[in-house]
TrEMBL record:
One Gene Ontology cellular component: plasma membrane
Protein name per the record: Membrane transport protein MMPL domain-containing protein
One Pfam family in the UniProt entry: MMPL
Organism: Streptomyces haneummycinicus
Keyword set, alphabetical order: Cell membrane, Membrane, Transmembrane, Transmembrane helix
UniProt-listed InterPro entries: MMPL_dom, Mycobact_MmpL
Membrane-spanning parts: 152-170, 177-201, 213-230, 251-272, 278-298
Domain Membrane transport protein MMPL: 101-319
Family of this protein: Belongs to the resistance-nodulation-cell division (RND) (TC 2.A.6) family. MmpL subfamily.
Membrane topology label: Multi-pass membrane protein
Subcellular location: Cell membrane
């Protein structure tokens, strides 16, 4: 069966997901080139602690400030002698004490984020301190955690909403489920191939934490658009001539339009690859690749062959799943 072979190939492509490193990109790896800011950061790290350019900020109650300070200074990954007040800062303000600490690791590194986690655990263990840990590294850590939460929430939610819309539009259940499955498979294949390309072709250090979510939103939005164009036309033709003739006619009527639109969109997103920012280049490459897969393979081959093999049952529970106008026409003609 054509659809089985196509699905197997896409599934193999999706195995590249094991190479996906969407854990964030450090400043040193965020550009395709090497701007002056990165050169300056490297010089600073050579002569000073790597995290000196973006220190950790800690706020606590005045009564527990000494205990909190000892907890911070004793945490692995913190330069103990760096603990102190920022220049020009009052020692105490409204019963709160603010001080800074320098991290051993670069402030945007995974090691620095792990240090922030240890510092937070240490200061929160001080009773009645009401200690809070901030700064650039802490903000990056919080953004990563928020993005991970969004990935786990938004992606399933979008799929459910899209499924309900397709069910209402097609007045069926099997067809929308098949379409959602093809969208997921197309997304996984595009992400897998992109991960392999980023690692072994472009030699990027990794992907930003929001990379999967952005690619998913773009590919689902575009893929569902093409699904709607194709399947609504197939359904119209199936109601008059039967499912199999409807699939053939629907593909012939919409194929050129979908392919042209896909090529234009792929070229548009591919243009992002010319930007000097790695995050934008990665999103542009992955979306362009996903659109091409969706247009040339998924929509033209996988969806149509699935519909052809499933036959009228694809419209279940609508009456089209029990009545085949094409068969009736054939019997009348005989």
């Amino acid at each position: 069966m054509v659809w089985a072979v196509t699905a197997a190939v896409l599934a193999i492509c999706s195995l590249g997901l094991i190479q996906l490193r969407a854990e964030g990109i450090g400043n040193a790896d965020a550009f395709t080139g090497k701007p002056d800011s990165i050169t300056g950061q490297e010089v600073s790290a050579r002569y000073f602690p790597a995290g000196s350019g973006d220190p950790l900020v800690v706020v606590s109650n005045r009564a527990r400030a000494e205990e909190v300070g000892r907890a911070v200074a004793g945490t692995e990954g913190v330069v103990p002698e760096s603990l102190g007040l920022p220049p020009g800062t009052k020692p105490v303000f409204e019963g709160k004490v603010l001080f800074e600490a320098t991290l051993v690791a670069p402030s945007d590194s995974e090691a620095a984020k792990r240090t922030v986690e240890r510092v937070r655990d240490a200061v929160h263990a001080v009773p009645d301190a009401d200690a809070q840990v901030g700064g650039g590294t802490a903000a990056l850590l919080d953004m990563d955690e928020a993005t991970t939460h969004d990935n786990l929430l938004i992606i399933p939610l979008v799929l459910v909403v899209v499924l309900l819309i397709l069910c209402a539009l097609l007045r069926a259940l099997i067809a929308p489920l098949l379409l959602i499955a093809t969208v997921i498979l197309s997304f996984a294949a595009a992400l897998g191939l992109s991960a392999l390309a980023f690692r072994y072709v472009f030699d990027y250090a990794g992907e930003s934490t929001d990379f999967p979510l952005f690619v998913f939103v773009f590919l689902v939005a575009l893929g569902i658009d093409y699904n709607i164009f194709l399947t609504t036309r197939i359904r119209e033709e199936a109601a008059r001539h039967g499912t199999r003739p409807g699939v053939v006619t629907g593909l012939a009527a919409t194929g050129a339009v979908i392919t042209s639109a896909g090529l234009v969109l792929a070229g548009t997103f591919a243009a992002l690859g010319t930007l000097p920012m790695v995050a934008f280049a990665e999103i542009g490459f992955a979306v362009a690749l996903g659109v091409l897969l969706d247009t040339l393979v998924v929509r033209s081959v996988l969806v149509t062959s699935l519909f052809l093999d499933t036959g009228p049952k694809v419209w279940w529970p609508h009456r089209l799943s029990r009545e085949d106008p094409g068969a009736g026409v054939s019997r009348s003609g005989g």
